[in-house]
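Hi W., the NAI complex you wanted:
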Amino acid sequence: MQISGKVALVTGGISGIGQGFVEALLAGGAKVSIVDFNEEAGRATEKDLAEKYGSSNVIFCPCNVTSQEQFEEAFRRTRGVLGGPDIVVNNAGVGGETDDKWESVIDINLKGTLRGTRLALKYMSEAGGGSGGVIVNMASMAGVNPNPFAPVYGASKAGIIHATRSLAISPDVQKSGIRLNVMCPAFVDTPMFRNMASGDASQTSSSDQMAVKAFVDHIGVMSVDEVAAAFLDLVKDETRSGIILRCAKKTGIQYSTLSVQDV
Ligand SMILES: NC(=O)C1=CN([C@@H]2O[C@H](COP(=O)(O)OP(=O)(O)OC[C@H]3O[C@@H](n4cnc5c(N)ncnc54)[C@H](O)[C@@H]3O)[C@@H](O)[C@H]2O)C=CC1
Ligand SMILES: CCCCCC(=O)/C=C/[C@H]1[C@H](O)CC(=O)[C@@H]1CCCCCCC(=O)O
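Structure:
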């Protein structure tokens, strides 16, 4: 798919990985709708990017991905102002395993991504006025391999991987010309990562924190630019469908697929 002239909707697009994806898409000539619940930062980002890439190429839609109503309105507004969408990126996500936070990890990461995926399938289908496109969902290496530090976060990401790959092999979805891929990075240098690495957001014991640090030292930390380059490849290359893309500083980028016949 040629990115130039296409319309992309990116959730969690004002910080970290999402911000990197937004800039990469705009630099490639796409129009971008940034969907995020941080309204103040969203307005400021919209202004900065409009100055850099043109005000007709970028909008900000305030939206909490846990709200069906707000999310549907973000899709409606994106289509009304920019057209499309042809590219939907469900990237908004959080960590947190405490008694008061763990359910919101499922609500935001898993249910928010499923909500965005269902809306993308609706808006990209012919029946919904669309003409196909590509959906990229953000999971994590924590959804592929078990880890003792973040079981809820890992479960939310495993759910994203499974749903994305299951939809990607659906004949109905394939008939509508929609590709779905899922990204599973290990650690990436973003505000979320720095918050964890500084210990500010830590909910684990000090021995667990030491184990996380040792793990980070072992597999390394990718830059947002490295993850954004892998993302662009998933969007542009029409042969990439049902792909699970794993990436880590130490091991680089690995692509795999599984089909319904694999047992
Ligand atoms: N940084 C890392 O090491 C890794 C991050 N990831 C995943 O990548 C995604 C992005 O993470 P980062 O860029 O590191 O985080 P970040 O904290 O820098 O950015 C997350 C963005 O999502 C937005 N957001 C959070 N909850 C939202 C909600 N309910 N509705 C709308 N927007 C919401 C935030 O306002 C923020 O703009 C997440 O899904 C995360 O789980 C995956 C692997 C590694
Ligand atoms: C444990 C394997 C993680 C693989 C990559 C990933 O998704 C990392 C995400 C973290 C991000 O860098 C910042 C976070 O809060 C995410 C989850 C962190 C899990 C470990 C938490 C340990 C702690 O609370 O100190």
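The chain has one domain: 7-256.

W.
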